[in-house]
Design brief:
By secondary structure, the chain is an alpha/beta fold. The protein is 38% helix and 16% strand. The protein has a seven-stranded mixed sheet, sandwiched between helices.
């Protein structure tokens, strides 16, 4: 099964504010872009992925991610992340009505294409499925089969909300790179331990990572 991935990305100057203890204001936009570049590069390389769509209004991110093979959809929705994801999914389904869709966080700098393929393969067994993040209460991936609505419930305690919405939680081992999103310095340290992609490695070099 070949999936279309929808990846949301807010404007870079507003991204990753919780990394203030790790990266200065002038560094965080570049770090957020690097996370997205490594995420998109791994997703494009995944054997289970036919198309990667990024929903963003950031011109720099759009240009850089398109160069990696992503298709860019302007974020014209109002109402935050879930509205942006619903908008992206609707645009994709207009073009490919029967495509299975998964949304993936843009801050997975250690993402491995092979691990993503394992997660998507497991998700294909259910109408809707999700993967919890490494911290526990969040979600890094939500998938909807062809003909099923995505119904994103991202935000605080999204793991519980996705479960309550009827999506099946995927219980998988050895897919740490798909779970390890980065919101804090501790998250970045964990991602670096897994092994991040080249964009994040370059931008994070020299940063004082809390606890390192």
């Amino acid at each position: 099964m070949q999936w279309t991935l929808v990846i949301p990305l807010k404007p870079l100057p507003r991204a990753k504010s919780r990394l203030a203890d790790t990266a200065a204001d002038g560094v965080r936009p570049g770090l957020a872009l690097a996370f997205a570049q490594d995420t998109v590069a791994a997703a494009v390389a995944c054997s289970a992925v036919a198309d990667v769509v990024v929903v963003t209004d950031d011109e720099l991110a759009a240009r850089e991610l398109a160069a990696l093979g992503a298709r860019i959809i302007p974020d014209t929705a109002t109402g935050g992340l879930n509205a942006a994801l619903a908008h992206g999914a609707a645009v994709v389904r207009e073009i490919r009505p029967r495509t299975p869709i998964a949304t993936l966080n843009a801050d997975l700098p250690a993402l491995r294409a092979a691990e993503l393929a394992v997660v998507l393969g497991a998700a294909a067994e259910f109408p809707r499925a999700f993967l919890a993040d490494a911290a526990g209460p969040g979600t890094t991936l939500l998938a909807a089969a062809a003909g099923a609505e995505l119904q994103p419930e991202f935000g605080i305690d999204s793991r519980s909300r996705h479960r309550a919405s009827g999506a099946r939680e995927l219980d998988l081992a050895d897919v740490d790179s798909v779970r390890q999103d980065v919101d804090t310095g501790a998250d970045l340290r964990a991602a670096l331990a897994l092994g991040v992609g080249p964009y994040t490695a370059a931008v994070s070099a020299g940063l004082l990572i809390p606890g390192s």
